[in-house]
Amino acid sequence: MTTQQLHEQILLKKSFLCVGLDPDLTKIPPHLLETEDPIFEFNKAIIDATHDLTVGYKPNTAFFEAYGIKGWISLQKTINYINDNFPEIFTIADAKRGDIGNTSSMYAKAFFEDLNFDSVTVAPYMGKDSVEPFLAFENKHTIMLALTSNQGAFDFQTLTTNGQELYKQVLETSKTWKNSHNLMYVVGATKAEYFADIRKIVPDSFLLVPGIGAQGGSLSEVCKYGMNDKIGLLVNSARAIIYASKGTDFAEKAREEALAVQQEMESIISLKSQV
Hints:
Elements: H1 3-13, E1 17-21, H2 38-50, E2 56-59, H3 62-65, H4 68-85, E3 90-97, H5 101-114, E4 119-122, H6 128-135, E5 141-147, H7 153-156, E6 160-161, E7 164-165, H8 166-174, E8 183-187, H9 195-201, E9 207-209, H10 219-226, E10 233-237, H11 239-242, H12 250-274
Parallel strand pairs: 1-2, 1-10, 2-3, 3-4, 4-5, 5-8, 8-9, 9-10
Antiparallel strand pairs: 6-7
């Protein structure tokens, strides 16, 4: 999927919502535990209930890897289900990979070729040769951690070196890498006040924004400082949507939560178009 196609989906659905698929067997509705593949059945029900309200799904691979080969099979079934039934949906493997070049190449092949995700999250700490192998894949997107929503982000990311915060240096440097046009960036919703400075560095890039909902981020604040002329945001919500209920009505309740977010996004898009 190209960024233009993603933008078209945003305008069509009046939504820039991305639903995080973080299945935890201790949290999903108990009746699903009786099925052959509870994780896939949970994901499938969430997808069926929300696909018209969202432009993206973001399975966090840790919630699948934790269950060994069974979890990996559930991930394969989940991405296949999305690709086969809703090819207009942008898919993100939230894997946060990043290693020496030949290892990154194998990670890229795993997520882009074998699993056929549209994008994967990566950590830039090891620098250019750990990220460029992901960028080499045409019409695939590498979503690089820039400024994250967790408390520990302040341990390193906002430290000043040579008169500039580290996250800004990471953003600036990444623009010089080969195929950097395939880059997107993770910026946490709880860091809304930083978006204006980030947009000065990467004005046209898509930003994946976790932290809305359960983590306390403000959608209106994120949009105020982070939205560009083509929206340029994928705002992720996971727990607030997928765990809205533990009953047999979990999918319906998930849809209600997703709809509330989509309607707020529709209002924001409408106001922007009037400016």
